[in-house]
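User: Hello, can you help with two protein structures?

Assistant: Certainly.
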Amino acid sequence: MWATCTYDFGIPEEQFWTMVPAQFFALMERQEREDNRQHMLVAGVQLLLAKAHLKPPPGKKGWTIEDFMPKSWVEETQEAKNTAPDWRNMLATVEQLNKAFGGKDLRRKK
């Protein structure tokens, strides 16, 4: 954690020692989003060049941005799509938490 904060993020050591873990993980998440953005920009240029100058592989209709993104990003994206929570399950969880903490359900009139 120390090396990541001081070297990668450029945070002074004194400031690092005052951070709580939530702040560190927020920085890590922000860095991951920025890395994905950079990958997407480069992949977009590669996609443009491929569409202009290359034929797609046999059996493929055309190039997609995923063809030029890191394999780990493509796998994570597909996994997230497959495991995306259903809104009904999320609603049920919120209702249970609301009930457990003594909250009122303001949607229903009694």
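That covers the first. Now for the second protein you mentioned:
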Amino acid sequence: MAIVFLFDCGAWLRRTGDGMSDIGTVLKEYWGIVAAFVASIVWLVRLENRSISNEREIKRLSEQREKDLKNLERSQDQQNAMLVEMRTDIKQLLSRK
């Protein structure tokens, strides 16, 4: 759509012969297309920023998950050691009787 606008705009300026003096007229006739083009560019920039932000957040969450898994593994190892100790203590108590 923008390419058609540029070719049409160039042809119109060549027909009038005034060149840049009639750019106001061109903008007046095609303001909707120009506004849509500018809005599309702004939207694409915002979309790119959002994807970059999401990528950073995913990376941060991935690193946090790795830390949490390491902490969980350490905690489970401590619990297992405690259970083994309790089991041996219980066996010792039961063997005394």
